[in-house]
Amino acid sequence: MGGRLYTRSLCLSAQARWSPGGLQVPDFRFRGDSEARRRLMAASTEQATGGVEKTAAEEKPRVLEPGAAPFGNFPHYSRFHPPEQRLRLLPPELLRRLFPQSSETRPILGLDVGCNSGDLSVALYKHFLSLHDGETCSDASRELHLLCCDIDPVLVERAEKECPFPDGLTFITLDFMNQRTRKVLLSSFLSQFGRSVFDIGFCMSVTMWIHLNHGDQGLWEFLAHLSSLCRYLLVEPQPWKCYRAAARRLRKLGLHDFDHFRSLAIQGDMASQIVHILTQDHGMELVCCFGNTNWDRSLLLFRTKQATETHPIPESLIEGKERNRIRFWRQ
């Protein structure tokens, strides 16, 4: 209970200042070409040859029992964790405030790790560009472009087929913990825009699956990679109770337990653990906590200490009762 109160206190106190290898890689720019998209899908699946990725690919076609998604690759994730629960906490103007309009900052480049079937990726894209259902914008891809990756090729294929903004969102199959594949695919994408890092990364309910499948060291390395790739990072950590629930689901199905679950030293208040690792070990600053979803997960915004944008949250974004809920973060 004390850890939970500490996390909520941390959120309140943070709530207002946001201030190639030899592989052949595809050209990510030609998103309007269906053949180019097909080649991209094929290339990302073939190149993502890590052990976990291979396992996911070998399951196809597969039918998962409810709860039997050891990498978080639930086939209908958004049905029980709808995107709207995150969007209601995030100001639509967030990216425009972090990255003021200029030719050097457009398009804003985002990395969505663990995108599943793309429902949240599309919802974030629409939210930050203030697009309504059924609405498209010819200039959207020049404003924001998201590279969305997931370990499950079946989910990625679905995301690719159903994406209403093919010019602004690129979906690839990627085991993010496979260093060689990660470097090649991400560097190739960034090079198309003359960039070396992403403006912002999204890590929404992914940290637990990395932790359970790769252990304490894997979680530490995962966060290290993200912090080196992104100027800003929005993280939604799963609380420890979700770890126990995930392990319990596998046991009920008669499946093997997670290899690392019983040996994890990093546990307890996972939001605070993530904050500690990113700020103390990986040189990021906690800028803002946007609050908690209905399923009690915090939305935490970090930035690299080298980031130059240090804009406070504009008063226009804080209305009504939000003024009483927001507190300035003090180091």
TrEMBL record:
Summary of subunit composition and partner proteins = Interacts with DICER1; the interaction may be mediated by RNA.
At the top of the EC hierarchy, this enzyme's class is: transferase
Return the PROSITE patterns for the record: BIN3_SAM
- Upper lineage: Eukaryota, Metazoa, Chordata, Craniata, Vertebrata
Protein name (database record): RNA methyltransferase
Q: Which residues form the Bin3-type SAM domain?
A: 93-314
In which organism is this protein found? Odocoileus virginianus
Q: Name one GO molecular function term.
A: O-methyltransferase activity
- Job description of the protein: O-methyltransferase that specifically monomethylates 5'-monophosphate of cytoplasmic histidyl tRNA (tRNA(His)), acting as a capping enzyme by protecting tRNA(His) from cleavage by DICER1. Also able, with less efficiently, to methylate the 5' monophosphate of a subset of pre-miRNAs, acting as a negative regulator of miRNA processing. The 5' monophosphate of pre-miRNAs is recognized by DICER1 and is required for pre-miRNAs processing: methylation at this position reduces the processing of pre-miRNAs by DICER1.
One of the protein's GO biological processes? negative regulation of pre-miRNA processing
- Which keywords appear in this protein's UniProt record, sorted alphabetically? Methyltransferase, S-adenosyl-L-methionine, Transferase
Q: Which domain of life is it from?
A: Eukaryota
One GO cellular-component annotation of the UniProt record comes to:
cytoplasm
Q: Which Pfam families match?
A: Bin3
**UniProt gene name:** BCDIN3D
Task: Quickly give the catalysed reaction.
Answer: a 5'-end 5'-phospho-ribonucleoside-RNA + S-adenosyl-L-methionine = a 5'-end (5'-methylphospho)-ribonucleoside-RNA + S-adenosyl-L-homocysteine; a 5'-end 5'-phospho-ribonucleoside-RNA + 2 S-adenosyl-L-methionine = a 5'-end (5'-bismethylphospho)-ribonucleoside-RNA + 2 S-adenosyl-L-homocysteine
Q: What is its EC number?
A: 2.1.1.-
